[in-house]
Amino acid sequence: MKKEVGSKLANSVRQAKSKQPTDVVPVASEAKAPSAPADVVIEAQAAAPILSSRRVWPD
Amino acid sequence: MLAQVFSVANQKGGTGKTTLSMNLAAGLSKRGRTLIIDADPQGSAGQWAGLSPDERPFPVSVISIASNLPREIKRMREDYQYLVVDCPPTLETGVAQSAMTVSDKVLIPILPSPVDLWASVRLAEAIEQVKIYNDELQPYILVNQLEPRNAMSRGMRQALDEFDIPALDSCIRRRAVYRNSALEGSSVYCMGKRGEPAKQEIDALIEEILKS
After folding, report:
1. Which of A50, B160, B181, B190 lies 20 to 30 A from B19 at CA?
2. Residues of B in contact with A37 (CB under 8 A)
């Protein structure tokens, strides 16, 4: 059973690879466009004081 | 010494990226100063940490970065020993790829299901393209929510051999304590006895990725 399922999964991955389009993935576009000013958002959620500027390490 | 940067990425949603990021970071924080970078606009990592009670804050700070991720990560490398980047569940924006351009390792959590395997084929291609910019990037597949008695779970190793990306020996089992730790704004390290098996598997994962 294990071998059968494993084989089926492996075959399905091979099929997915063979059908894979090659031109759909943007190549690190953000990494190549560093011209915008740094914009570090300190609050992950405007309503929730999540951040660690208030959660400082014990050290 | 500059921080090691671990990105947790998969363009498919629901693979456990945030759960892995939070618990991985909690474990790493026992070894050195750690920061979680929430690169997912959904802000789940921040929400998770925000649920922690004031008397027991989440052990790792979470910072959300909206843009210029590579530059900010490079800057933060000087202040921490470990950075964990929780990537968004998409490749379309380029954010996950940009995180990977400045990462040492990328962990790809995959659920034991055909759909998750197929979706990861595309991510593997994206990683190959990222390696043009960061040829030292080490990607690893991590089987998440493994159910050892389930035939699909047991067949995963064979399927993962089809990928050019190595799969870690460590795996994360499907355990309610991971979900419960999110609800409590905590990690499996703070869940007492019921978190012990999960804690052990996160520790084993950390040992493996730090050695690899």
Report:
1. B160
2. 68
Q: What pLDDT shows up at residue B39?
A: 97
How many CB atoms are located within 10 Å of the residue B183 CB?
A: 9
For the cut 70, the answer to whether the pLDDT of residue A30 exceeds it is no
H helical segments located in chain B: 17-28, 44-50, 69-76, 95-100, 114-130, 151-154, 156-160, 176-183, 196-211
Q: Using pLDDT thresholds of 50, 70 and 90, give the confidence band for residue B1.
A: confident
Q: Do B58 and A55 touch (CB under 8 A)?
A: yes
Pairwise CB contact (< 8 Å): A12 & B49: no
Task: Using CB atoms, pick whichever of A31, A36, A49 lies closest to residue B50.
Answer: A49
The pTM of this model reads: 0.85
Joined together, the tokens standing for residue B93 give 């924006």
Q: Is the ipTM of this complex over 0.90?
A: no
